[in-house]
Design a protein that fits this description.
Elements: E1 3-7, H1 12-21, E2 25-28, E3 47-51, E4 61-63, E5 67-71, H2 76-80, H3 91-97, H4 101-106, H5 109-113, H6 121-128, E6 132-137, E7 140-145, E8 163-170, E9 176-181, E10 194-202, E11 205-214, E12 218-220, H7 222-228, H8 237-253, H9 258-275
Parallel strand pairs: 1-3, 2-3
Antiparallel strand pairs: 4-5, 5-8, 6-7, 6-8, 9-10, 10-11, 11-12
Helix pairs in contact: 3-6, 8-9
Bound molecules: flavin-adenine dinucleotide.
Amino acid sequence: MHVEDVAAPQSMAEAIAFLKTHLNVVPWAGGTLLSTRNDRHDGDKPVSILDLDGIPELTVINRSDRYLELGSCVSLSAILSLPFILPLGPLRGAARLVGTATVRNLATIGGNLAARDSFMTCFAALACMDAAVEIRDAGGSRWISIHGLINDDDRPGFPATALLTRVRIPTLPWDSVAVCRLGELMRGEPCPATFVAAARFEKETISELRLLAAGLRIVRDRTLELSLVGKKLPLSARDIETAESSASYKAAQAGFGETRSRLYGHYVAVFLSGSQR
Ligand SMILES: Cc1cc2nc3c(=O)[nH]c(=O)nc-3n(C[C@H](O)[C@H](O)[C@H](O)COP(=O)(O)OP(=O)(O)OC[C@H]3O[C@@H](n4cnc5c(N)ncnc54)[C@H](O)[C@@H]3O)c2cc1C
């Protein structure tokens, strides 16, 4: 990466002014991904680094009855230090999977969600929870669903000249969640792919279900989810087998490779079997 200019603004207004006046701006949060990977900001063009560390509003954590709002520069350690009574669904497990304690002290939630090359671990968890993100650019600010950061080809699609400023996470509790790595690290990926699942039950029936795999691409089979919502627990062996093969097939179609696709199907089956208890 050839660096032409560096700025360390103390406010969002200064950061946006820098975005407006410079080309090829690379936001720098914790730097744990950028210092080990270029994250698609490389190439021949010189870049300008925008250090977000000194902007106080990006480290604010707010809570309402229904949401938790995190500034984009809140570290993963700060998320893990939030009180356990706060329902964070699969996010807590996802944050715990990232690097070491030292890495998590620097690594931010914004850097995890705005990675350009691959869907990182917390992205998978927050996509499963249908979080919303606030994006700011020269034109102003807007809230969008996290799914708006996924391209049509299911690849990461964070806008080029924008900043992620806040993340809004619904805190309605889940009855069952699972997060784990999906196989080994593959070439081109900065971290191993992630499996995330979450479910809510009502009167021994599945009332909500999310099943997701994320790596270089993201896979969420809404048809499969909808086919299981409304089913009484325990699910039949046939339902679980069908879910396993449907999930594996979908992952294989998305290019997850044979081993990972089979593993994804297996984790879906284990999650569904475990949820009955
Ligand atoms: C040893 C090690 C192990 C790791 N293991 C994992 C792992 O298992 N899972 C995982 O997910 N990650 C892993 N990582 C990568 C990294 O630590 C995390 O993804 C982290 O959350 C990235 O956050 P950051 O603040 O350091 O991002 P940065 O490196 O600062 O930035 C990452 C990307 O996001 C962009 N960006 C950052 N903030 C913003 C913003 N506010 N608005 C717009 N763009 C922004 C940057 O320009 C860059 O493209 C690992 C890193 C190391 C060193």
